[in-house]
Amino acid sequence: MSVKTHGWAFSPYVRAVRIALNEKGVAHDHVPLTPPDLATPQGRALSPFGRVPVLEHDGRRLFETVAILDYVDAAFDGPRLKSGDPYRDALSTAVVAAAGHYLYPTAVMGVFFNQAYILANGGRVDADRLAAAVEATVEPLKAIELVVETLIWLSGGPFMGGPGFGLADAALVPMIQNLSLAEAGRGLMAERSDLSAWFAEAVRRPSVTSTEVPIPNFGLPPV
């Protein structure tokens, strides 16, 4: 059996899929794919919408994180990453989708990028941009926490998979980890005690720690 993930290793979307594979006990190879690679004909052939991750399983390719995560849980042996309860599984999918639609633009491309990424790559933080990103992240983070609380309560905790680690955990933990790399992000998380308690448990799992990589350098935005 051949299983490969394609993408830049720091991407929270790529990490979500790799975390899920690790939780299922699926050995896989990671193939680096950078943003410039996606603009080439070869990159477009691999990823039709120019996004990562891409999963290859025995020569068959899948794209879009939500679809890949569902496939990983259904196609491979190992612990189930969904509960089997329709309502809880729908909420789990909602967390995966909401993390991408609402947290990624604000928490990752906003707070993380405008502070942690900029500083790691020798740039200067634009205080106004950072402040706007922090403000934009408050409500999505609060909303995500409410759903996390609900799923943990329904599953009996400490994770959202019911009762174990699940797809929602795999998708959300790298987003929150990116946010927490920024001082401003840690400040936001300090205001969300339940979300912080879940994150403290999730981020220690071997499936998560084994996918951690340094902040990359894809260049700095023009001043």
Characterise the protein shown here.
The chain has helices at 12-24, 35-38, 41-46, 65-75, 86-120, 127-155, 167-180, 183-190, 193-202, 206-209, and strands spanning 3-7, 29-32, 54-57, 60-63. By secondary structure, the chain is of the alpha+beta class. Strands 2-1-3-4 form a 4-stranded mixed sheet, with helices on one face. A hairpin with a 2-residue loop joins strand 3 and strand 4. The protein is globular, with a radius of gyration of 17 Å. The mean pLDDT is 95.
Short structural description:
This protein is α+β, with helices and mostly antiparallel strands. It has ten helices and four strands.
Basic shape: globular
User: How many strands, which pairing sense, and closed or not: the largest β-sheet?
Assistant: 4 strands, mixed
Structural class: alpha+beta
Into which percentage range does the β-strand content fall? Answer: 5-15%
Q: Please give the count of helices.
A: 10
Q: If you compute it from the alpha carbons, what radius of gyration comes out, rounded to the nearest whole angstrom?
A: 17 Å
How many E strands?
A: 4
Give short descriptive properties of this protein.
223 residues; alpha+beta; four-stranded mixed β-sheet; 10 helices; 4 strands; 60% helix; 8% strand
